[in-house]
């Protein structure tokens, strides 16, 4: 398999995963035009996309789903509560309900949904698997059992590293928003994410992509610096990269 973060951050999230000639999107939180442009930069045809898997109903995860799905006749997969709590697509035939812990097979990939803590109707994250396992885990309030279980056996992990706690505390956000971000229904900090990986990742984990970084309360250098704590484990030496809200990442082979 190969994976690229087409965008990741509070302004939009979209991950592309492919196997052979088939691709899927995890979220479509940027415009359909930008999704197409970034796929073309990767030399990938948007008609390869055979499914859009939605994690939850927030706009930075569904913004481009309707237009992209209708234009390319692509099914959208979401839990029933998520689909009922937002507008996903004007063509209802393209919306398919899934359940937590369910698996959908597309093009030799098994896409598994699992629940996570976040302030919305029925949030899930996804694993994409064949003989390897990609886990894409963002918008998480804390490292719950489901999160830990999937971090523990991933080969490639895209994990939220949303904020630096000191930057958030000193930053311009109002108190209620800071409180929510730090809550068990909010977002993982750099430290929370790094400790989760340090304590639970297996030595076979080859790549960590730090994702959903806050533009206001974090920087790529701070996130990477925090993850240097992984040096405490001699058996764990993954490549660490940071996704971007404005540019696609390279395609990484898993």
Textual characterization of the structure:
By secondary structure, the chain is α/β, with parallel strands linked by helices. It folds into two domains: 1-99, Metallo-beta-lactamase, Chain A (4-Layer Sandwich); 132-243, Metallo-beta-lactamase, Chain A, CATH 3.60.15.10. It contains nine helices and 14 strands. It has helices spanning 32-41, 59-62, 65-72, 80-84, 145-151, 165-170, 175-182, 190-200, 220-226; strands spanning 2-7, 14-19, 22-26, 49-53, 76-79, 95-98, 103-106, 109-115, 124-129, 133-137, 156-160, 207-211, 239-242, 252-253. The strands form two sheets. Strands 6-5-4-3-2-1-14 form a seven-stranded mixed sheet. It has a seven-stranded mixed sheet with strand order 7-8-9-10-11-12-13, with helices on one face. Strand 8 and strand 9 form a beta hairpin.
Keywords, separated by commas or semicolons:
254 residues, alpha/beta, Metallo-beta-lactamase, Chain A, seven-stranded mixed beta sheet
């Amino acid at each position: 398999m190969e994976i690229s973060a087409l965008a990741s951050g509070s302004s939009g999230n979209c991950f592309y995963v492919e196997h052979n000639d088939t691709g899927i999107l995890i979220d479509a939180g940027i415009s359909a035009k930008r999704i197409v442009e970034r796929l073309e930069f990767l030399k990938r045809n948007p008609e390869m996309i055979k499914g859009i898997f939605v994690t939850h109903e927030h706009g930075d995860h569904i913004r481009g789903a309707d237009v992209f799905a209708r234009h390319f006749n692509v099914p959208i997969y979401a839990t029933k509560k998520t689909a009922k709590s937002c507008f996903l697509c004007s063509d209802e035939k393209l919306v398919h309900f899934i359940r937590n812990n369910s698996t959908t097979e597309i093009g030799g990939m098994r896409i598994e949904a699992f629940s996570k803590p976040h302030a919305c109707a029925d949030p899930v994250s996804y694993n994409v698997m064949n003989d390897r396992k990609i886990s894409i885990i963002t918008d998480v309030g804390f490292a719950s059992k489901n999160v830990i279980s999937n971090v523990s056996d991933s080969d490639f992990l895209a994990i939220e590293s949303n904020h630096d706690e000191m930057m958030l505390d000193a930053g311009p956000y109002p108190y209620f928003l800071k409180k929510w971000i730090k809550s068990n229904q909010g977002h993982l900090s750099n430290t929370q994410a790094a400790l989760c990986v340090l304590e639970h990742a297996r030595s076979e984990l080859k790549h960590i992509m730090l994702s959903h970084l806050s533009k206001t309360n974090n920087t790529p250098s701070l996130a990477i610096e925090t993850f240097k704590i992984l040096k405490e484990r001699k058996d764990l030496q993954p490549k660490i990269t940071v996704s971007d809200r404005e540019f696609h990442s390279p395609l990484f082979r898993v």
